[in-house]
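fyi for ur records
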Amino acid sequence: MQTPSTVFIKIADYDLSALPEICRDPNAPGFADTLIRHVSDEYATDGMFAKVSIEQDTLIIAEDLEAKAKSDEGLDALQRGVYATGKAIFEALLSEHPNNAIVLYNLGMVYSDEGNLGKAIELLSTLICLKPDYAHGWVALAVAYMRNNQIIEADQAAQKAVQLAPNDQYALRTAGYIASKLNEPDAAALLENAVRAGPEDPIALLALAENLLTTHKDEAIKKRVSALLTQVIDVAPGSKAAERAEEILRGIAYDKFRQTGSLNPQAIDYCLHALKALQGMSHQEVAGVAMETAALGQSGLDVNNPNKTYQLRSIPGNYTGLQVVCFMYVALEQVAPGQDIGFDLQAEYEEALRIYNANQR
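which gave:
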């Protein structure tokens, strides 16, 4: 059986200066209860679970192994994504350990993630009052404020986190993201530092890309933005960040594609070629083309570079990014008409279809 580590301290040797003045005398009414609460809160602030008692002239501090085990169980549940179990464990611990930093932080984060923002802000505010030098507590509070549309409070909390931990990637990316929302001039610098601190952090990479795209219009910056977005897709495939990166990349590509402001003759030719290539194919074969080209599209297609090609198996050959997009558009129009691929080729497709039908007469 495991024995809790226990500390014995003579009350005469304990610094009582932090207690209320009227409770510093061991003979004063309420002294024992005040000292026990004070010591318990000191340990709780550091995330420790302690059972505190007084026997005669000695302060006895023992580790609460049961509470510690429950906390570890709750953390494990949250790390495995079993949020309901983790939440229930920390809610039970909160009733017994209302000032424990681990309990306040993790339960506050759970409430924030599930949208219970008032409760999240309450717990995280309590946390940083008890532990004002806890940078990640300020980060969590900033996120909760931001989700609650309290952007000024979010900015203040995030800036405090950066002051406490100037090289912490989570503090930097949160402060940079919020600064971007407020159009603050230091947003880019914060996000650049966040990316340096966490070069494979998809959230920081995406936030920096979006900031640069908003604040700069020159082509050199757009190339860097494209590189950052491609990195997001590479390090976090299938994530929400990657989906957003793909959406922005399509927008950049489409803007360049539409620079002339009129129909793109190359796209018309590629759509016409696709119509001819799909002619005679079964519905299932056309669906296969749609699926293969869509899968390629999820990884990002460079539609403006004729020297870069992609291989297709369903229609054997190597094709430019624009050709692949045209195959995708035409195939989807046949198997799932009206589907939005994030790249508007309707006008080019309709012109190609008009030419195709005219040639069939």
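The first helix runs from residue 31 to 45. thats all i got for now
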